Amino acid sequence: MQRVFDVLFSGLALLVLSPLLIPVVIVLRLTGEGEIFFVQQRVGRGGKTFGLLKFATMLKDSPNLGTGTITLQDDPRILPVGKFLRATKMNELPQLINILRGDMSVIGPRPQTLRCFAGFPESSQREIMKVPPGLSGVGSIVFRAEERMMHDAKNADALYDQVIMPYKGQLEEWYVQHRTLRNYFLLIVLTVWVVFFPRSGVFWRAFPDLPPPPEALRGYLPGGWVVAAGV
After folding, report:
1. Between helices 181-196 and 2-30, what is the axis angle to 10°?
2. What is the dihedral of CA 148, 209, 202, 231, to 10 degrees?
3. CA 88, 17, 1 angle in degrees (round to 5)?
């Protein structure tokens, strides 16, 4: 049933958003390096990889420069137009095509590169591979400020591998274990909500049984976890 809604939502979204997507395509073609799409191999259902589509927001050779597949806030590899596309999450919209293809779902664990997927604990990897990856999901909503976390860290790689990925893995495991149509639709609504109100922590109240975040992340998470959780 979720696959039916995936096709309906993604097809309708592409149709409705076409007046917005076409100008973005033209601007990208005429600016930066002239690239429109960035295709990157990500881990999908069953551990199979697929080519994830994004609007090009960074230098073409970015995976081989600087911090590789990890992006920081104000990363110098980000192109001028790319900064706006990333801030509004418009760079993710080409993944609607991935959803139509069956590579992804509207809601699910965010698909990771092989390097980042390896950063999940093995228990999280096993659970995540059971379901299609998503355009949005619990992990995407909670970690909207991930680039700022990485930017402020003294050792970005250590923070990512030792703190962010283990907690993100817990969130994605939670979703797999609570994967229902109710949560599917609720997460779609919450995704739209946090686009317009990025500092909102309403999702903590919508899902009060989410795994509590580690201390190192609480100051960065939207809405203020301690207040929202009533601690």
Report:
1. 30
2. -80
3. 100
Quick one: tokens of 103?
Answer: 């590579």
The pLDDT tens digits for 141-191 are: 998 877 777 777 778 788 888 989 999 999 999 999 999 999 999 999 999
Nearest to 24 by CA among 86, 101, 72, 103: 86
pTM: 0.82
